């Protein structure tokens, strides 16, 4: 009796893994971006969470253009001092509550000039280095 190889198709390919390995994103860009999948499986897009703009995000294009967008966006967003300062206002007998802070340039100029005049400090104290 001759032995023959019998091919059985059970739907399992030994070269295909049952579990697909999840790809991890290592760039800090993905903290501020969301991956979007398109109808075309070859195409991948990224959406900026703060401004909602959509960019190409294929693995061949990298993440440098996404980082440049985020850097330019945050530079324009953080120009106003009120975005990163918080003042508290306390009332007598009450807890302090957080209040929106507005920067008053005239008041700051008066306080600095008073500091210089009454303290007899030199102008180098407040000049830029």
From TrEMBL:
Occurrences of domain BED-type (ranges): 24-81
Secretion signal span: none
Keyword match Iron-sulfur: no
Pfam family, one: zf-BED
Keywords from the named record: Metal-binding, Zinc, Zinc-finger
GO molecular function, one term: sequence-specific double-stranded DNA binding
GO BP annotations listed: regulation of transcription by RNA polymerase II
Keyword Transferase on entry: no
Gene Ontology cellular-component terms listed: nucleus
InterPro entries named among the record's database cross-references: Cuticle_assoc_protein, Znf_BED, Znf_C2H2_sf
Protein name as it appears in the record: BED-type domain-containing protein
Source organism: Gossypium barbadense (Sea Island cotton)
């Amino acid at each position: 009796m001759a032995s023959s190889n019998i091919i059985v198709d059970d739907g399992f390919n030994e070269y295909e893994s049952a579990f697909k390995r999840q790809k991890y994103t290592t760039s800090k860009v993905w903290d501020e971006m969301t991956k979007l999948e398109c109808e075309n499986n070859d195409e991948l897009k990224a959406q900026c969470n703060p401004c909602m703009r959509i960019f190409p995000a294929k693995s061949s294009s990298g993440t440098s253009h996404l980082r440049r967008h985020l850097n330019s966006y945050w530079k324009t967003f953080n120009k106003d001092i009120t975005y990163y300062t918080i003042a508290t206002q306390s009332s007598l007998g009450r807890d302090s509550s957080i209040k929106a802070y507005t920067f008053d340039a005239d008041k700051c100029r008066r306080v600095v000039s008073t500091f210089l005049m009454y303290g007899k400090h030199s102008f180098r104290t407040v000049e830029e280095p």
